[in-house]
Amino acid sequence: MSEKEVVASDLVPSPWKTLFSNKEWLIHRIVVQSTYAMVVIVLLAHALVWFWKPWLQ
């Protein structure tokens, strides 16, 4: 790998440098973090509904 390629993907962790450029890595990061946030929101919403009106008794 040339030095130019290393500088071009300086935000990407070493194991992933062959797969992602900086721009792609940032998009991937947004998608992953959004997915985690959605899972937290969904779990919180389900817990609140369960406390309000349990569906399995």
Question: Your description of this structure?
Answer:
- There is one protein chain.
- The protein is mainly alpha-helical and 57 residues long.
- It contains two helices and no strands.
- It is rod-shaped.
- The mean pLDDT is 87.
Furnish the topology, listing elements before pairings.
Blueprint: H1 3-8, H2 22-52
Structure summary:
This protein has 57 residues and is mainly α. The chain is built from two helices and no strands.
Q: Which terms summarize this structure?
A:
mainly alpha; 57 residues; rod-shaped
Report, as a whole number of angstroms, the end-to-end distance: 60 Å
**Radius of gyration over C-alpha positions, nearest whole angstrom:** 20 Å
Q: Structural class from helices and strands? A: mainly alpha
**Helix-strand pattern:** HH
